[in-house]
Write a structure and sequence with these properties.
The complex is a heterodimer. In chain A, strands 2, 4, 5, 9, 10 and 11 form a 6-stranded mixed beta sheet that branches. A 5-stranded antiparallel beta sheet of chain A has the order 1-3-8-7-6, with no helix packed on it. In chain A, 38% of the residues are buried. Chain A has no helices and 11 strands. Chain A is globular, with a radius of gyration of 13 Å. By secondary structure, chain A is mainly β. Chain B is built from no helices and 11 strands. Chain B is an all-beta fold. Chain B is 0% helix and 59% strand. The chains are: A mainly beta, B mainly beta. At the A-B interface, strand 4, strand 5 and strand 10 of A face strand 4, strand 5, strand 9 and strand 10 of B.
Chain lengths: 111, 114
């Protein structure tokens, strides 16, 4: 089955860019997702990318997909303290398939 | 607000007991998923229902069961509870639109088994 790996922790200063990385094993993953979880809250869907795309931009968020290396990244421009949270990468086959999640990357933004 | 409602938010119960977690999906979403989040295992998929029928099964223990009702709400039943069942249980519902699938998660039910 799918295996999704993420680095566990990232610390940045407010105003800097953050880049959260993810690798996945199943090349048949059709959709790759980024979710954000704030303390005590549920998972918030930030964005997703279809596997035939290389990049997707949504305001401060940029998703890059390197399908050859099975590498996905999420770049947050002008990171704010409110961006401090755990970010999960997930892969799925689309349709009504289930999602396989990484263990999450904790992003800490300091003033 | 994702539109997915889970109740209760918190649950504390003793070992050996049985609990029921409830989920109301977003309006119009036919598919419901249950996930368990624990510190050591991360987010683990448990089970999925689509329009009342079981569609996929993940790492769900035999002591756990779920169902989806005609009004599309779902319940996750956890029985003979053990300390290790303490976790955050999430429900998600999904819709397939514009060629993509979006899964939206509820706030979760935090289960503490003592």
């Amino acid at each position: 089955g799918e295996d999704v790996e993420q680095s566990l922790f990232l610390s940045v200063r407010e105003g800097d860019s953050s880049v959260i990385n993810c690798t996945y094993t199943d090349s048949s993953s059709t959709y790759l997702y980024w979710y954000k979880q704030e303390p005590g809250a549920g998972l918030q869907l930030l964005t997703y990318i279809f596997s035939n795309m290389d990049m997707k931009q949504d305001q401060r968020l940029t998703v890059l997909l390197n399908k050859k290396d099975k590498h996905l990244s999420l770049r947050i421009a002008d990171t704010q303290t409110g961006d401090s949270a755990i970010y999960f990468c997930a892969g799925g086959l689309g349709g009504y398939s289930t999602l396989t999640f990484g263990k999450g990357t904790m992003l800490l933004v300091s003033p | 607000d994702s539109g997915v409602t889970q109740t209760p938010k918190h649950l504390i119960t003793a070992t050996g007991q049985r609990v029921t977690l409830r989920c109301s999906p977003r309006s119009g979403d036919l598919s419901v998923y249950w996930y368990q989040q624990s510190l050591d295992q991360g987010l683990q998929f448990l089970i999925q229902y689509y329009n009342g029928e079981e569609r996929a099964k993940g790492n769900i223990l035999e002591r756990f069961s779920a169902q989806q009702f005609p009004d599309l709400h779902s319940e996750l039943n956890l029985s003979s509870l053990e300390l290790g069942d303490s976790a955050l249980y999430f429900c998600a519902s999904s819709a397939y639109r514009d060629g993509g699938t979006e899964a939206f998660f509820g706030q979760g039910t935090r289960l503490t088994v003592v």
